[in-house]
Design goal:
The chain has 199 residues and is mostly helical. The protein has one domain. Helix content is 79%, strand content 0%. The chain has 7 helices and no strands. It has helices at 2-21, 27-37, 55-71, 77-99, 105-138, 143-163, 168-198. The termini are far apart. The model is unreliable at 193-199 (pLDDT under 50).
Length: 199
């Protein structure tokens, strides 16, 4: 029971950060690294991941975050980012989930692979599917707005996961419901758009 109470908050935090990485590759890692660097909200990194809070890591993550946020607002480039994200976002999710686990490094790596990577991939897939539907129905005109919403969700999810890790399961359920409603909305508009394009 003691092990559960010790590891569950870290697992929930890792799960929330991984979900955030599914929406934006670098922003959640920057939030995590900043919290660890300045000892905010009790965030501590596992021994093998202390480098994530270094000055050089913060600089690299800051530059990568700005580049991703800006590039994702550019038509065509955003699709390239989604293709790269199929690999990059699960890797970032695995890193985020593993880094907050303070224990056996092998166990931390296992948590990253089993918990972080699939969660990030699932959120990335939901994002990519919604973005593809938006590209079809609005010819990409709504994609920059969607990108802003995704950035805000990623940042909010990361911060809330750090502040209130116990809320992570509820946040994931709420996101899944919203994503499902958005997908149904996009799907409902898709046939009429295709019909008008072919007529």
């Amino acid at each position: 029971m003691d092990n559960v109470s010790q590891y569950l908050p870290a697992a929930l935090l890792g799960l929330g950060l991984a979900a955030s990485c599914g929406l934006n590759t670098f922003l959640p890692l920057l939030v995590l690294a900043s919290a660890a660097k300045w000892h905010l909200f009790g965030v501590q990194l596992g021994g093998n991941f202390a480098w994530l809070g270094s000055d050089s890591a913060l600089l690299a993550l800051s530059l990568a975050t700005v580049a991703e946020v800006v590039a994702d607002k550019i038509p065509v480039v955003d699709h390239g980012l989604d293709m790269l994200g199929t690999v990059a976002r699960p890797a970032a999710g695995a890193l985020a989930a593993a880094s907050v686990f303070k224990g056996d490094p092998a166990m931390a790596a296992m948590i990253g692979l089993v918990l972080g990577a699939p969660t990030a991939f699932g959120f990335h897939a939901a994002k990519a599917g919604t973005r593809a539907g938006s590209s079809t129905t609005t010819f990409g005109m709504a994609n920059p707005l969607l990108s802003f919403i995704e950035d805000a969700l990623s940042l909010g999810f990361a911060v809330l996961s750090i502040l209130f890790p116990w809320l992570v399961p509820l946040l994931i359920v709420l996101f899944a419901l919203v994503a499902w409603r958005l997908w149904k909305l996009v799907r409902s508009k898709l046939p009429s758009r295709l019909g008008s394009a072919t007529s």
